[in-house]
Specification:
By secondary structure, the chain is α/β, with parallel strands linked by helices. The chain is built from 16 helices and 22 strands. Nicotinamide-adenine-dinucleotide (NAD) binds next to helix 8 and helix 9.
């Protein structure tokens, strides 16, 4: 099935009603209950209903999964296959994901509330594309020869690290998992994946499909469970070689502690953002307005690289805000995420919903003017209307902290571009930024000065697996995507041969 919507709203409702998802852990190629028998609820933000009870991995289960991953790595059942064979298996896996895109997307939409069209295109489709892209890289990666003296041959090769623990969030549950699984598995590692509590179900299907494609048992294991139990057990496990984490900055730092207090494993973290869209006076206002609206309201603002701060010059502010309000009203149709016409779904769960509403109240109490939204919407589900807060200063809480909801903070400047850049960079994060101007020289100079892992010029959120993704400062260390990600799951090895 293609990664686009061919079913009607009624079809999706019927599919949801008939749902009977797999809820057990996936260890060593088979589904298994947690040793303790414990489970946790997964609910749908569509209506708060309980979708399933999922096996909750405990310390013993995580240990079982790590042992299976270690055994698969040590006996070479995967890493010692020929590159061509590994490529073939991963390509088959990508094809199976495409064939099961509707199953994966339905689970993701029900658990997370993302509009079904986006779950299909971005999560299911993007995951298949990512796995296929890294599969293709397997038999196109070469080692190096160092400029050794004539009587020696010095080779530099890359070797897989061993067992990788991948810990991921709920906002792009499958896609972000694939950014870690695909390069890690392509380079010959074994993986233990810990999905977020809110979104476990599609990850279990992903593992089933990997096995169907021919990935040997133990190479990919999935251990749903609570962060402080299963996540921590993985972070502290003495036989895990690296943790690849995406999530909040606070939990990222916990993983650094876990590593330091256990075996000093490598840690790559991708944490949050408070990303600026800097609009200069000569910007193309309609284009900027559309990008600003999509940049903050897409996925109900639950995007690490959401453009949550608009830094706009006073001379164009009113025109830009009016245009953003218009685009938002025309585009962001709020509704049931199972309806293919919905563009804006609910917030992932009650706790996050309350957090977002709390931030809106804090912003208003601090003197922000509500340009758009500000209210709850349908109280039965966890909706938040697209909200624009014209804040007093970049020091306000809503301009500094990651809200992870459809809330845009507008910060006005009336000086030169230096002031705009200073405000854009005045954040603890450094994931992405954009600059809007028609002057190509100013655009390049500004892009260099913006402290972010990705800078967009006259666009926002343009991306593909071909370029690295990650950030500076509190956003973290390490990059997902692109060929550079292959380096982060391997270590360099020197082999020096005496030719005399
Ligand atoms: P989170 O940090 O609460 O959870 C992320 C993962 O860590 C989950 O699997 C969770 O179970 C686990 N976890 C939670 N507490 C833990 C603990 N004490 N020990 C070990 N593991 C623990 O984040 P979230 O709420 O799932 O996701 C939202 C956050 O993710 C936002 O801050 C967002 O910016 C960030 N994010 C960043 C990127 C990026 O690429 N930079 C991408 C997506 C999301």
């Amino acid at each position: 099935m293609a990664d686009r919507v061919t079913r009607t709203y009624q079809d999706w409702l019927a599919a949801a009603a008939a749902l009977s998802p797999e809820t057990r852990l996936f260890i060593d190629g088979r589904f298994t209950e947690a040793a303790s028998g414990e489970t946790f609820e997964t609910t749908s933000p569509r209506d708060g209903s309980v979708l399933a009870r999922v096996a909750a991995a405990g310390v013993d289960d995580v240990d079982r999964a790590v042992q299976a991953a270690r055994a698969a790595f040590d006996d070479g059942r995967w890493r010692e296959l020929s590159p061509k064979e590994r490529k073939r298996i991963m390509l088959r896996w990508a094809e199976l994901i495409r064939a099961h895109a509707e199953e994966l997307a339905l689970l993701d939409t029900l658990e997370m509330g993302k509009p079904i069209a986006e779950s299909l295109r971005v999560d299911a489709g993007g995951t298949a594309d990512t796995i296929a892209w890294y599969a293709e890289a397997i038999d196109k990666s070469y080692g190096e020869l160092a400029p050794a003296p004539p009587d020696a041959l010095a080779m530099i090769t890359r070797e897989p690290l061993g067992v990788i623990g991948a810990v991921v969030p709920w906002n792009y549950a499958l896609l972000i998992a694939s950014w870690k699984l695909a390069p890690a598995i392509a380079t010959g590692n074994s993986v233990v994946l810990k999905p977020a509590e809110q979104t476990s179900l599609a990850a279990l299907v992903l593992a089933r499909l990997a096995t169907e494609a021919g990935l040997p048992d133990g190479v990919l294991n999935v251990v749903p469970g609570l962060g402080e139990v299963a996540g921590q057990a993985l972070g502290r496990h003495a036989d895990v070689d690296k943790i690849a984490f995406t999530g909040s900055a606070a939990v990222a730092r916990l993983f650094q502690v876990y590593a330091g207090e256990s075996n000093g494993k490598q840690i790559a973290v991708e944490a949050g953002g408070k990303s600026p869209q800097l609009v200069l006076p000569d910007a193309d206002i309609p284009a900027a307005a559309s990008a600003v609206a999509w940049g903050i309201f897409y996925n109900a603002g639950q995007t690490c690289n959401a453009g949550s701060r608009l830094i706009v010059h006073a001379s164009v502010k009113d025109r830009l805000l009016a245009e953003i309000v218009k685009v938002t009203g025309e585009t962001f149709r709020l509704g049931d995420p199972l309806d293919p016409a919905t563009v804006l779904g609910p917030i992932v769960d009650r706790a996050q919903h309350e957090k977002v509403l709390g931030y809106i109240a804090t912003g208003v109490a601090a003197g922000a003017k509500v340009v758009l939204g500000g209210d709850v919407g349908d109280a039965a589900a966890t909706f938040v209307q697209p909200t624009i807060l014209d804040v007093v200063s970049n020091d306000d809480v809503v301009a500094r902290e990651e809200i992870f909801g459809p809330v845009l903070a507008v910060i006005t400047y009336d000086g030169d571009v230096d002031e705009g850049v200073r405000l854009a960079n005045d954040t603890e994060y450094g994931l992405v930024a954009s600059v809007w101007t028609r002057d190509i020289t100013v655009a390049h100079q500004t892009a260099r000065r913006l402290r972010a892992g990705t800078v967009w010029i006259n666009t926002f959120d343009a991306s593909d697996v071909i370029t690295p993704f990650g950030g500076f400062k509190a956003t973290g260390a390490g990059r997902d995507k692109s060929l550079h990600a292959l380096d982060s799951y391997t270590a360099l090895k020197t082999t020096w041969i005496d030719l005399t």
